[in-house]
Inverse folding.
């Protein structure tokens, strides 16, 4: 029986100069009220093992040198309360000096080539000028600057970053970006930093893993998005991207015409991959690798064929359906499945034809103005629909509209903020809504249950905080098996996966290995980008499985039962 007065530690031990391989040693120490993790290590060092190596400095969370992994999560041990059982390891992605100490010296001067100090064009004149007045800066100018200066350079973000995990370039990544961001956001700075910051920010998934694990609770992914926006403000967008975001996404009719016209050239540019029902480039196009598998464009776009209202036979409620670009152009069958499962439950579905892109591609590219314009157009459309609830089948679109919109309208007038708030509050993720309607009697017999595993999309888990509802649905209609690290980023992240195929595919490898070990016939998710990436992974790893949206699995199970009945 475990004592409540004992703390059990399992500590990583490794001396590269003596040991061939790391080992883990166990220690039991008496628990004292208010003990921090640092206190437990000090106890081991002072009373049990003088050879234990770990690092600490300020003891109040400012120097960052005491960061280690505890139970799989990076923490500052000087500020974190001890737990009854702890597995202690050095931060991943860094060379180990000894035990819990990582190599920091070689990274200490990594910012020097980028001028890590305030640059002033008139600095020499200011020094010579008598009675020089201080700069006048508004609070709004310093908002982001104040946040990024809270970074303590603990390296936790790099240790958990999926990109650093495969590139092993721990000198870059979110850590270096956070160290340089204060100068980009300081209105007094005149340093030339745009190229360096652009390189750092574009090799980012915006997956939120860094923010989720930051010991100082900094919204690192949002800061990186603001870096991109600041760079667009300073240097603009490339012409091709500007045309897509500012012309095509704001004109669905023009976009549809171009897609249909482009389909005539499909055979020249693409070759079919029958097993995945997808297309593969015959040669690299626009920076996109020829190995990238793309879904085939739908012959009939969802918004063109769907009714304005899909009426349920015994209506209990009416909801509006925000479709999104991927369902409209690539996966209309997911939209159709959504209508069927809702109608079966007595839910009528309004489908406003005038709706546009959710704006996430614009936001992720730093084009905040376009993201706002698209949002305002969509808000007006759904206000006119009169629906009190809006469901969204794509986790990325749902997270952007529900979580990000209030932030990009933070400085709007009060009237507009109220409209945005009402719009955002009306949004319910489809799986959450369906889960709330479940009776517990779904598909219990006369149905061949598929073996299914589930991938948590980054937006679903980290932005919306939704994990259980999709699993609840899957467990009701399938033989569900959990995969290891189900919430690990798949590496797609929208245009990132299209523009950085090699890196994206490497990040995907561990996800596919975990999925393969489950023996699942179906890899389920709720994000269209993740769905596309899982299809890529199935192709790359020659798996005998298919990728499906959760609502497709539910619809297929219910349709099969109906045929049997």
């Amino acid at each position: 029986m475990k004592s409540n007065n004992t703390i059990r530690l399992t500590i990583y031990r490794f001396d590269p100069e003596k040991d061939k391989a790391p080992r883990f040693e166990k220690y039991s120490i008496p628990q004292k009220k208010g003990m921090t993790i640092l206190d437990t290590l000090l106890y081991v060092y002072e009373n049990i093992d003088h050879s234990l190596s770990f690092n600490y400095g300020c003891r109040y969370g400012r120097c960052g040198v005491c960061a280690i992994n505890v139970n799989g999560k990076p923490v500052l041990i000087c500020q974190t309360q001890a737990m009854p059982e702890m597995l202690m390891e050095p931060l991943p992605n860094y060379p180990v000096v000894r035990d819990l100490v990582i190599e920091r010296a070689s990274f200490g001067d990594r910012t020097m080539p980028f001028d890590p100090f305030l640059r002033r064009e008139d600095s020499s004149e200011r020094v010579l000028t008598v009675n020089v007045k201080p700069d006048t800066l508004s609070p709004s100018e310093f908002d982001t600057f104040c946040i990024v200066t809270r970074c303590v350079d603990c390296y936790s973000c790099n240790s958990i970053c999926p990109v650093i995990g495969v590139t092993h370039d721990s000198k870059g990544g979110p850590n270096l970006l956070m160290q340089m961001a204060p100068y980009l956001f300081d209105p007094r700075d005149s340093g030339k930093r745009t190229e360096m910051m652009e390189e750092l920010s574009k090799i980012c998934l915006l997956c939120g893993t860094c923010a989720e694990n930051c010991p100082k609770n900094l919204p690192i992914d949002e800061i990186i998005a603001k870096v991109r926006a600041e760079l667009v403000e300073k240097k603009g967008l490339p012409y091709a991207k500007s045309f897509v975001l500012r012309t095509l996404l704001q004109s669905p009719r023009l976009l549809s015409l171009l897609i249909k016209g482009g389909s005539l050239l499909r055979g020249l540019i693409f070759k079919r991959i029958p097993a995945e029902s997808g297309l593969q480039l015959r040669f690299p196009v626009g920076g996109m690798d020829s190995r990238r598998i793309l879904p085939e464009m739908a012959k009939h776009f969802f918004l063109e064929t769907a009714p304005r209202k899909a009426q349920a036979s015994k209506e209990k409620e009416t909801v509006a359906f925000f479709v999104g670009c991927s369902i409209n152009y690539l996966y209309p069958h997911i939209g159709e499945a959504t209508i069927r499962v809702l109608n079966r439950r007595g839910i009528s579905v309004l489908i406003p034809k005038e709706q546009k892109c959710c704006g996430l591609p614009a936001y992720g590219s730093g084009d905040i103005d376009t993201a706002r314009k698209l949002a305002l157009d969509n808000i007006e459309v759904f206000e006119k629909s009169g629906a009190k609830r809006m469901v969204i089948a794509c986790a990325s679109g749902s997270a952007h509209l529900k979580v990000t919109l209030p932030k990009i309208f933070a400085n709007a007038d009060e009237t507009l903020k109220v409209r945005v708030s009402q719009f955002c509050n009306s949004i319910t993720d489809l799986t959450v809504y369906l889960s709330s309607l479940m009776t517990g009697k779904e598909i219990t017999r006369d149905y061949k249950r598929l073996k299914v595993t589930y991938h948590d999309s980054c937006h679903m888990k980290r932005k919306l905080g939704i994990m259980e509802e999709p699993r609840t649905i899957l467990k009701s209609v399938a033989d569900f098996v959990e995969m290891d690290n189900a919430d690990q980023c798949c590496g797609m992240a929208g245009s990132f996966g299209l523009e950085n195929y090699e890196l994206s595919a490497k990040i995907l490898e561990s996800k596919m290995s975990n999925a393969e070990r489950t023996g699942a016939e179906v890899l389920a998710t709720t994000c269209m980008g993740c769905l596309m990436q899982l299809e890529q992974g199935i192709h790359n790893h020659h798996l005998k499985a298919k990728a499906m949206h959760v609502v497709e699995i539910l619809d297929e199970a219910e349709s099969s039962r109906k045929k049997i009945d």
Notes: The CA atoms of residues 89 and 167 lie 21 Å apart. The first helix runs from residue 37 to 47.
